[in-house]
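WP5 quarterly update. Target: Signal peptide peptidase SppA. Source organism: Chryseobacterium gilvum. Length: 584 aa.
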Amino acid sequence: MKSFFKNVLANIVAIVILCAVFFFFFIMMIAFGSMSNEKSVTVKKNSVLTINLKTTIIDSPTEDQQNIFGINNKNTNVLIYDVIEAVKKAKTDDNIKGISIEIDNLNAGITQIDDLRSAIEDFKKSGKFVYAYGNVVSQSSYYLGSVADQYYLNPSGGIELKGLSTEVTFFKDFAEKYGIGIEVIRHGKFKSAVEPFLRNDISPENKEQLSTLLNDIWENTSSKIAASRKMNTSQFKTIVDSLYGMIPDQSLKYKLADKLIQKSEYDQLIKAKLNLKEEDKLTKISLSKYMDSFKDKDRSDEKVAVLYASGSINNGDEYNDIYSQKYIDYIKELQDDKKIKAVVLRINSPGGSANASDEILFELQQLKKKKPLIISFGDYAASGGYYIAMAADKIYSEPNTLTGSIGVFGVLPYFKDLANKNGVRSDIVSTNANSAFYSSLNGVTPYGVSLMTRSVEGTYKRFVYFVTQNRKKTFEQIDNIGGGRVWSGTRAKEIGLVDELGSLHDAVKFAAEKAGLKSYEVASYPKKMTAFEKIFEDLNEDDISAKVIKNKIGKSNYEILQQMTDKKLKSEVKMEMPYQVKIN
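Structure tokens (predicted):
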């Protein structure tokens, strides 16, 4: 027995020592990370600002996925607003002689690429050079890289230039085969988020809106590529249709690339451009390091706040995505902060919970009574994402923003046939007539369907009401362009769903003008998580499981799985867009 207690005590001591060592190691990592972040960066003469594979452009601080030590596992995440500021700064920085775009798979949304491309176009007016190099180049990367004065391609590389397409997956037969029942209530013939559960093929309405949307986006992007490469639209269409970019020699022949060279030859070419000697070192500086060289300078007591709303809209108070209670707290903080003179709400959301969207809209309406509230749309501002914009003084949209989708739906999955096929059945005992109007095994009662239909219709009318108030249009006018239809930003401007086509910077500038500010600081909300906060976020068991599953099956598939399994999402009226569009 004495030996037993001795062994137990030894194990306890060992565990305590290991915990102490881990804690010490952790503190040192945090301290090291803090010192690294605070270290000043000096920009050397003849530097080249470089956009490379280690750069991930994000729209919101909540998208900054890091490990518990506050260090990104692979890439450096940079906010698109800060990226544009860096390019603007580089334009007049005598130490920056040019920009080198060296990226094969650009991790950024289409509106972010649009804004960065425009900023680089403006940078070129300084007379400084912009070069680009690629190996096996994605379409989105080439869209950015084509802005360069010269585009260089690896002799064994290629450019995936193919146009846009979308593939809609249908689950109706699958659900019927395996005994999964799905009760769907929706308003709007274009509200195709639920179409995969109702049909085995694409509806004419959905095909129409997808075709219009894809063609709007492709016309905008392809015309810019063709103009940069100095070819007419007919030539460019032939090149894309024939996939000439996939073959290096064809890329050169059809002017997608200017020369086929190795990466080391490309670096030598830049050195020659800078008049450097053979023994001189080529100095490249990344976007993130360049931003560190000037951030937090020229601070002002008066601020324009940018509140980022990125992701799906949900009830609750979690950090990632848009959780109503968390955003209500942010909005109230901005409302009470006397240094905040105006607010820009940057929306990058396909929507989500109707109830959560309504809560956020109300608080934004209260904020607007005290301070200018300007809206900026990113890649998506649809359904609930568009709904919360209805508190705006003015709405800015990017040309390629997916917006509108003014429609509502509810999905009620149940597994009665599946359960019965596997020997599972249930009986219900209840106190009232509709205590069990919905059951995951027995489905939804006729009265439950009627109730949900009334809820969906009532929510749609409330949605349209707020749109009529903000856009100064009648119910009939909004209903005609609503019905769940998604529009490009360009068309949204034409039909009056937004006020201006412009970037986040345009929205910030207008907000400052409306508040009468001449000198101001731009403050980002929500604040980036500290390392200690991130620990507790990452150690949550449910979050760990969700992240693992999401990484394995992909974000879009995970969201479908959530609709089927997450009890928080069942029996809920939704304002949500059905798909995403990327130019990869």
